[in-house]
Design goal:
By secondary structure, the protein is α/β, with parallel strands linked by helices. The chain has nine helices and 13 strands.
């Protein structure tokens, strides 16, 4: 059997992981530099009203965790395709690759150059290919092409958490939420870059809809701490005849981005 492996920033539910045949390696988050926790399935955490995550930091999924999982799969005669969060956002890909090289050719690892909803869409596409009879090598090559067509646009309330994380590409330092201005950011080849600037929530939704390049058939609307805005955006997209799936964003990305978060992710047509 060919399993799929990913890290917890795909934000799968336990039910989804089982249905897709996905094994998840957790990211870690640390409170006050002392208490360490593992990020679980998406249903295991949601932000409390007014909750601050300033006291938290994160840690990449560990090479030892990947090694343990890969060794077990190999011993049982299985193969695995591992798709991780962008290497420009985390050291998780490097850890998974190191573990795979030690395990052997039965494990292939891909840098998704994305995360969250777009990572979920890659896992979903990989499962469809594998169920249709694709080999590990065929699926590996197809996913390297598919990642070029993944897109994510998101908005956050405060730029400071992202700046502190060191995972911010080129974005004007003057971007802020003063005067009700909201920055829209995107993932470009795995890095966070500036997309546009909106004035208020309605303009955020308008610009997100305009940014949906490539005639997507399905769009993931992702949220953390602002479900009302997510539902409003999903409704507008559905009125345009676009299939929408709403998904939550978990604590590790929330620590880096702050709360609330609103995002869209999709795969453009070939």
């Amino acid at each position: 059997m060919i399993y799929l492996v990913t890290d917890s920033t795909a934000y799968l539910s336990r039910e989804e992981a089982s249905a897709l045949g996905v094994l998840m390696v957790p990211m870690a988050f640390i409170k006050d530099g002392r208490e360490a926790f593992q990020e679980g399935f998406v249903e295991e955490w949601q932000p409390k009203p007014g909750q601050s995550l300033a006291a938290y930091s994160t840690s990449q999924a560990q090479a030892s965790a990947f090694s343990y999982l890969f060794d077990r799969l190999k011993a049982q005669g299985h193969q695995a395709l591992c798709i991780t969060i962008s290497s420009r956002l985390s050291g998780t890909f490097a850890n998974a690759l190191k573990a795979a090289e030690e395990t052997g050719e039965c494990i292939q690892v891909i840098d998704s150059r994305t995360t969250a909803g777009a990572l979920y869409l890659m896992l979903k596409a990989a499962r469809e290919m594998l169920d249709a009879g694709a080999s590990l090598t065929q699926c590996f090559e197809a996913m390297k092409q598919l990642r070029k067509r993944t897109h994510t646009i998101f908005t956050i309330q405060d730029m400071d958490p992202l700046r502190r994380s060191g995972r911010l590409g080129y974005v004007r330092s003057s971007v802020s939420t003063l005067l009700n201005l909201r920055p829209l950011l995107s993932l470009s080849d795995g890095s966070v870059v500036s997309h546009s600037l909106a004035r208020g929530k309605q303009d955020v939704q308008r610009l997100m809809m305009l940014g949906l390049v490539g005639k997507p058939q399905e769009v993931i609307v992702q949220h953390c701490g602002d479900e009302e805005s997510a539902r409003a955006l999903a409704q507008r997209l559905e009125e345009q005849g676009i299939q929408v799936m709403m998904r939550r964003i978990g604590i590790v990305l929330a620590i880096h981005l702050g709360v609330p978060i609103l995002s869209v992710a999709w795969v453009s047509a070939p």
